[in-house]
Amino acid sequence: MESRLRHIAGRGYKSYQAIQGDYDFGTFRLFIDHVQSDPFAPPSRLRARVAQSRARFPASLYANRIRTIALADLITRGFANSIRRYVKGSRGTGRSGVVLVDVGGQEILERTSCLVNEEFVEIRFSVGLPAAGRRCLGREALAIFFDEIPHLVEASLLYASYDPGVVAGHVYTAEDQKALRHQLAEHRLVAFIANDSVLPRASGVSDRPLRGRDVVAFTSPPELEVEFSAPNRDRVRGMGIPEGVTIIVGGGYHGKSTLLVAVERGVYNHVPGDGREYVVSRPDTVKIRAEDGRRIEKVNISPFISNLPFGQDTRAFHTDNASGSTSQAANIVEALEYGTSLLLMDEDTCATNFMIRDGRMQQLVPKEREPITPFLDQVRHLYSEHGVSTIIVMGGCSDYFDVADTIIAMDHYLPQVVTSQARHIARQQPALRMDESGGGFGDIGLRIPLPQSINPLRGSKVKAAAKGLHSIQFGYQVIDLGCVEQLVDTSQTRAIGDMLVYALRRGYIDAKTSLRQILERLFQDISDKGLDVISPFYGQHPGDYALPRPQEVAAALNRLRSLEVVRGGEHGRA
């Protein structure tokens, strides 16, 4: 390799193509899978692999799937930290000299940036091959390959380079979180917040924990305190939120929304020191909000909305420009369609006329002239008929006292159970309104996506690219995920685009198969073959994916503005 780099020094940039291949550096093996076409193109894709006989990570640290994910996450973070220490950075034209690895934030996600098994440890990263204009900078390239990359490998891919306690803590904390989450259903809980958790974040643009003497650590009220076992630590005590309908009340700035966001993120494992390591929620939890302007394709919103003007069918409701109420209704029904056992809502991001219609409004506008059945009248039916619980932050409407199983008041960032007090108030001051649900929620049916409506082609090429965390360029269209609040990493968004393309190519979207079945087949392939399988560069390395949940993949497909579906039973099988 050294001779090749010296030979192409000063030549045209395409001369770098000659270095593609794999090389034995003695202590590690380097694979150059893809060489960029010019200094401004996405950086070249590389892999560094160290045999376990040298890396020597104890087998116990990757003995199961969750430990392997956590160990790979730690190694990736170690590699990223080493880049800041050993790599000089940009030198030359465009992205010359940069070294990049796909590293996460506060969550521990399954990624393709690192592979750990009994044979080797492999890190997947990118390098901007250095150039002056469009001519190769051979000396700078030699420094990257023979000085910087060996230092990165030594500092991050060997067990001896880490504090064993830090490694074990990272791996075992993730395993404990998964174990706690697994126990929720058997205890008939939907979420758990451990005592001493730190829920507030540093700022509106930082997901790191708030620090300082003013931070109030979480403490469970006695009525809701439960104890869980964890495989790698003493028993964990904290607040368990029961199944059913839970309302979180309290004054402004007392921690209501902060608690809800912690539960929302509890579907993911968190790094040690995050403050939310032992905050867990049901894996299929979905945050619901109003989403004005979104497109809705044949969703059965009739449990909430019916008798629309001009006789529009709300059992297969379609619009290119949803209102707050119709979008929130569709978001709930879509969540039920692809699977959830817990809905989260914050009144600040909900449509008011969807959430409540009080007694005086019922008198002024009678039900026969009001198409909306408020969520207040369906929330209990959701639980009794579909087993779906709900947690709502509610600071301005007491009518939910009548339907809640549990009412938690946040006072100076600490929770108190006020269920009995709220019920007493409700008895003393009845709401004087009529239930408008009609006696039940009903079935929602299934939808079957049509493949001809899902086109990733832009001209003659497939285009499925993340444009930041909340946007996907899909063919000629842009999928707007700005209101899908449980996406936490751009690499998840990137994976979603390629997952949709993969499902099309595999024939899973075939005008016969329901959305839920498509997701099941897609995620089964990933479970069997690894997240690499969705990559259009399969056989090279896709080092920049993080695994999303089925809920977010479905949300993206539902927001594709060209999507067409048939209702289950209308065409083919469901």
Q: What does this protein look like?
A:
With 574 residues, this protein is an alpha+beta fold. It is built from 14 helices and 31 strands. The chain folds into 3 domains: 2-162, no CATH class; 177-443, Rossmann fold (3-Layer(aba) Sandwich); 447-567, no CATH class. The strands form 10 sheets. Strands 1, 2, 3, 4, 6 and 7 form a 6-stranded antiparallel β-sheet that branches. A 6-stranded mixed β-sheet has the order 18-21-22-15-23-24, with helices on both faces. The protein starts with a helix and ends in a 7-residue tail after the last strand.
Note the topology.
Layout: H1 2-8, E1 21-24, E2 29-34, E3 44-51, H2 52-55, H3 65-86, E4 99-100, E5 107-108, E6 114-116, E7 120-127, E8 131-132, E9 135-136, H4 138-156, H5 164-183, E10 189-194, E11 201-203, E12 206-209, E13 225-230, E14 233-242, E15 245-250, H6 256-265, E16 269-270, E17 279-281, E18 286-287, E19 296-299, E20 317-319, H7 324-338, E21 342-346, H8 352-355, H9 359-364, H10 379-386, E22 389-393, E23 406-411, E24 414-417, H11 419-428, E25 447-449, E26 457-458, E27 461-462, E28 464-466, E29 471-474, E30 477-480, H12 490-505, H13 515-529, H14 550-558, E31 565-567
Parallel strand pairs: 15-22, 15-23, 18-21, 21-22
Antiparallel strand pairs: 1-2, 2-3, 3-7, 4-7, 5-16, 6-7, 8-9, 10-14, 10-17, 11-12, 13-14, 19-20, 23-24, 25-31, 26-27, 28-29, 29-30
Helix pairs in contact: 1-4, 3-4, 3-5, 12-14
